[in-house]
Amino acid sequence: MDPLQRAPSNQASPLVGHNVATGDQALMDAVSAFGGEHSPAIIEALTPIGSLAGSAEAREHWHLANENEPVLRTADRFGTRIDEVDFHPSWHWLMTQGVGFGLTAEPWVSQSPVAHLQRAAGFLAWGQVEQGHMCPITMTYAVVPALRADDALAKQWTTGLASRTYDFGLRAPELKAGLLAGMGMTEKQGGSDLRTTTTQARPTETHGEYLLTGHKWFTSAPMNDLFLVLAQAPGGVSCFVVPRVRPDGTRNALSIVRLKDKLGNRSNASSELEFTDAWAVRLGDEGRGIRTIIEMVSATRQDCILGSAGIMRKAVSEAAWHASGRAAFGATLADQPAMINVLADLAVESEAATMVAMRLASAVDKPHDAHEQALRRIGLALEKFWVCKRTPFMVAEALECLGGNGYVEESGMPLLFRESPLNSIWEGSGNVQALDVLRALSREPESLEAWVTEVGTVRGENRHLDAMAETVLTELADLTDIETRARRIAGQMAAVLQGTVLLQHGDPDVADAFCASRLGGDWGGTFGTLPHGLALAGIVARTTPHLES
Prior knowledge:
The chain contains 18 helices and 11 strands. The chain is an alpha+beta fold. The strands form 3 sheets. Strands 3, 4, 5, 6, 7, 8 and 9 form a 7-stranded mixed sheet that branches. It has a two-stranded antiparallel ribbon with strand order 1-2. The chain is globular and about 75 Å long. Keywords: FAD, Flavoprotein, Oxidoreductase.
């Protein structure tokens, strides 16, 4: 033997060359369950998305976009204020693909009866490539239902927002082949309390037009073409459409104060914006701004759930792939009993998140179904709280499956881990979501009725779920210190809803494992503590990626 010949490295190869969409059994189960006769068409559309998402090319752009962060240019070389942000070419590549796959506002103009379901599946799959660029994609999708508060504004903007062409740069909207949207709600003195907005909106002599002056604490993707902004008008907090470029082709009076130095999501430019008599058009009635923009918030919360489910799927895929390609103590890690339990537990968490996210997304395609809309109302708050809150815990365990390799930047796991808390914060932190659940239960009794009806469809199929559902109703019957118990109630309701969806449409072994652990209490509180007697090997097999031939 040549003494210079290297021994086998016992290192797992990079996870590239697999189909992120069609290779995800939980996602395929969800598409089949909620897409019905349209499932084949959805899968056909997902196939190229999943193939590119699992490629070495996409993985490289993931890293490059985050290693080369956006740069703010406040002025040009002549000292003229321009307030532009430069992005690395990998950001533009990612945006070109995401917009090109129809993940922005296309479902709102599509004739397909499952357009939103298809978009949700594509979002969950493509979002696993890189999470930062999904922020402007989400906001562009979410802005359309809010714009519909004004027919003229909706007609003016929706076609551009629904385009599959990514057209970067500040130009008059009518000269661009595609548009992107954002929002400006949060202010430094108020945070989630939008009633304390101090940005002022002064009416002009033209009906419906205003000049805005104030400061917004968090505005992602400041190079987007338009923003929905909350401001104080004479009639109270109102919602406004603020374009980056005015109708006459001049730049609007928006200054980018700085870009935020964030824990994760570093490819995306989150900024502070300053308005100085910025031209705006009112959307909806004066004093009804929060109610108007809440339509956008609901859609962005949906994407928070989908995005977190995608992060979970990415994490467990990396863990299962590594475990199948690395040996220790005489066997591959994936064949070690302790690791089988860990991987199965991670898979259960991921599949539950995927199924419930897709269940809620399917309700968007049924706008006239009272049950579906009431379930979506309560379900978004519940699962935004629960799925997003579970994600960092889950990703940390998946990272540990790779050992020291998972702690090294090249693996991508640290990048994924830094991304994992974001969706729990964006569009309302845990307390905001839990209290929103209580608000829905008290003000919109149809929300609780929808949850009870949905859970009732599997009554008698699993004793753990039945018992937890009864516990929830007992908790709700006692109003003493209910806000103190808000998180407990929200978590229980969210887990019961996940269990319900798994029993209805998921893999039976996964459903049994979920109910026995998350609802039955036979769980050690950390991943890898699923109880004895479950079909763990089969669950792991469902989640282990397979390379495309």
